[in-house]
Amino acid sequence: MISLKEERVSLKNEIFILRELKIMIKAIFIDIDGTLRDSNRNLTVKTIETIKQISEKGILVILCSGRPRKYTEQISRECFASKYIITSSGGNIYDYEQDKILYINEMDKEAIIKLYEITNPEDVRFIMNVGESRVVNKVKHPDQEKKLEENIRDFVYKNDVVQCTIADSNFDKIKNLIPKIEDVENVEIKNRHKSLLDAKFKDDKTIFCDVANINSNKGNAVKKLLEILNIKNEETIAIGDDINDLSMFEQVGYKVAVDNAIDIVKENTDEITLSKMMKMALQYFWLNY
Q1: pLDDT for 128-180, tens place per residue?
Q2: Nearest to 167 by CA among 212, 120, 126
Q3: I need a surface site. Which of 171, 184, 189, 242 has the fewest CB within 10 A?
């Protein structure tokens, strides 16, 4: 149990660090699930107010997620972040105010077909990030997904898929599929449910793994966007919690892991925050800039 004194010391240290960096910072990259939002996928009023205030200072707050484009845009608009979003674990960079794709990393088509052939017979959800939304073999969220209505090969060769997600409520089913998924050429697992990496995290309602091209990741997308915006990496901060945030950390000047991050992320960061403390520190810092 973290004491109030420990929380205050942590907040004080984080504010000091941010003050030292304030002249440089032009962009902050933030993961969504487990970082911006809590484990129940809640986006608090305080978080929204903080990001809005940072944005009003001229700092770009850029959401960087494994989620599809439409979903990420919705969250970005809700919290008053910038018009730029990085989606599908780095497979797509999008400017939603201009309705312009700035970068896309289309998955290897034969690899998608192979993944489908491996996973579909196991009665798991096979989810393809296509355009702004998702096309799936089994619809779970009708407002966000479309049913795959044609032969997988025909569909894949007519559409640009940037990421596939394999998901199910059965932990063992997904765990047992992972070795087969890892054998598929030209793609790799970019992220997976924390319980598949660390036993201390419980397996909740949906166990998943995200798959994309080998050279597709958040880090490469961050690098590409910084080049487009003419921002130096030392002028940036990244905040994350999961394994797909590690490549993002490699491209920024200052790396922050939230307290609920997996161990490997905490081991590769400049700062570990207490629960919700970075949001508080950011709010305090930018309001007193």
Answers
A1: 999 998 999 999 999 889 999 999 999 999 999 999 999 999 999 999 999 99
A2: 126
A3: 171
Read out DSSP for 85-117?
EEEGGGTEEEETTTTEEEEE-PPPHHHHHHHHH
How many whole angstroms separate alpha carbon 12 and alpha carbon 45?
22
Is domain 109-213 classified as CATH 3.40.50.1820? no
Diameter of the chain by CA atoms?
60
Residue 253 · residue 21 · CB < 8 Å: yes
Q: How confident is the model at residue 126 (pLDDT cuts 50, 70, 90)?
A: very high
Q: What pTM does this model have?
A: 0.86
